[in-house]
Amino acid sequence: MVLLYVASAILIVGLGAGVFLFERFSTGSRRFVVLTLVTAAWLVPLGMTHGALTRADQDLWLRIAYLMIPLTVPALYWVAAALTASAPRISVRVLWGLGAAFAAVNAGGPWLVDGLRSLFDPARPVVGLAWLAVPYLAFQLVAIALTIRLLVTSRRGAFSGAERQEKIALAVAASVGALALLDFALAEAPFRAGLLTPLALLGAAAIIAAAGLRYRIFAPVHSVATDEVLRAMSDAVLVADGLGRIRGVNPAARRLLGRSEGQLVGKPVRWFVGVYEDGTWSQWEPLG
Fold first, then answer.
1. For a 10 Å CB count at each end of the chain, is N or C smaller?
2. Pairing relation of β-strands 246-249 and 274-277?
3. CA 45 to CA 8: how far, in whole Å?
4. Distance between CA 258 and CA 103 in Å, rounded?
5. Nearest to 102 by CA among 73, 128, 144
6. For 219, left (φ over 0), alpha (ψ -120 to 50), or beta?
7. Are 102 and 96 in contact (CB under 8 A)?
8. Spatial distance between the Cα atoms of 139 and 104, rounded to a whole number of angstroms
9. 171-177 long-range CB contacts below 8 Å, 24 or more apart?
C-alpha cells in the first residue's frame, strides 16, 4: 500500500511537469505543477500511515500529511483562477491565507486531526481546540464550491467552441478525484484512506493533463470581449498554436469547413487549410 501511494505521488508530479514543459511555462501550467506538488506532499505521508507499526507513528504521519492537505483546495482554486482569468485576487489570497492558517494550527498541535476524528466518531468527544475542525471543514466545502462556481460560469472556450468539452473534462476529473473523499468516508479507521485515494487522485491528474494536451486549457486565455468580436465576424477565423493545432474556430469557419467544433479543435490545421497554386496543393505548416 505504501508503494502505491509513493508511486502515485511520483506519477502525479510527473504529469504536472509534463504539462509545464508542454505549455512552455505558462501561468496555468505553473500553478498546476504547484497543485501536483502539494498533492504529492501529503499523499506520501498519508501512505506511510499504512506502514506505521504503532498508533503513535500513524498519528505522526497523519499530522505531517495535514501540514499540506489544507493547502490543496486553495491550490485547486488558484489553478481554476488561471484557467478562467476571472477570479478576484483577494479571494485567492484569502483562501491561501486560511489554508496556511489551518496548516499552522496542525503544526502547533494535534487539535485538527483529533477534532476531525471526533466529528466522525461519536465515541470520541470534541474538546478544546479540537473544535477548530468545524471551521476547517466549512473552509474546505466553501473553497470547493467557489472553485466549481468559477469553472461553471467561465466563458473560457466560448470562441473556440470547446467550452462544453473543456467543462466536461474538468467535471469528469473532479468526479474521479472526489472518489478519494468517498474512500476517506468508507475507511475503517477515520481519515486513514485506502486503495482508492491514490488511484482517484492519479486518475484526476491524468484527465486534467490529457485535457491540457487536447484542448490547451493551460494556454493563455483570450478575453471575453475578444471572443465575442471573433464570434460575430462574418469572415472565417482559425486560431492555431505553435504546434500547428487548431485552438480556436469561429462560427463562420465552422460553416465554411462544414465541421463541428469537436471535429476541428485539437486537429492539425494543415488538414483543413492550405494553398492551391499552379495546380499544386500545399499544406499549411507552422513557422518556427
1. C
2. unpaired
3. 12
4. 54
5. 73
6. beta
7. no
8. 15
9. 172/207, 173/204, 173/205, 173/207, 173/208, 173/211, 174/148, 174/204, 176/200, 176/203, 176/204, 176/207, 177/201, 177/203, 177/204
**pTM of the predicted model, to two decimals?**
0.75
Give the type of residue at 193.
A
DSSP string, 40-56: HHHHHHHHHTTT-SSHH
* Alpha-carbon distance values, 127 to 115, 121, 189, 246 (Å): 8, 13, 20, 58
Q: Enumerate residues 6+ apart whose C-beta is below 8 A from 111.
A: 105, 128, 129, 130, 132, 133
Could you tell me the three cell numbers for 42? 501529503
Report the candidate in 225, 274, 201, 215 with the shortest Cα–Cα distance to residue 247.
215
Write the CA distances from 13 to 5, 33, 73, 220, integer angstroms: 12, 7, 17, 22
Return left, alpha or beta for 126; rule: phi > 0 is left, psi -120 to 50 is alpha, else beta: beta
Are the C-beta atoms of residues 114 and 127 closer than 8 Å to each other? no
Burial of 239-248, coded b for 16+ CB within 10 Å and e otherwise, reads bbeeebbbbb
Q: Which residue has the cell 511537469?
A: 17
Per residue of the chain (288 residues), give pLDDT as tens. Answer: 899 999 999 999 999 999 998 877 788 889 999 999 999 999 999 999 888 888 888 888 988 998 999 999 999 999 888 877 677 889 999 999 999 999 998 888 888 878 877 777 777 777 777 788 889 989 988 998 888 888 777 655 544 455 667 777 888 888 888 888 777 766 665 556 778 889 999 999 999 898 887 777 777 655 445 566 777 788 888 877 666 777 778 888 888 888 887 778 777 877 877 665 666 656 655 554
Beta bridge partners of 268: 245
Distances (CA, A) of 253 to 51, 110, 250: 58, 60, 5
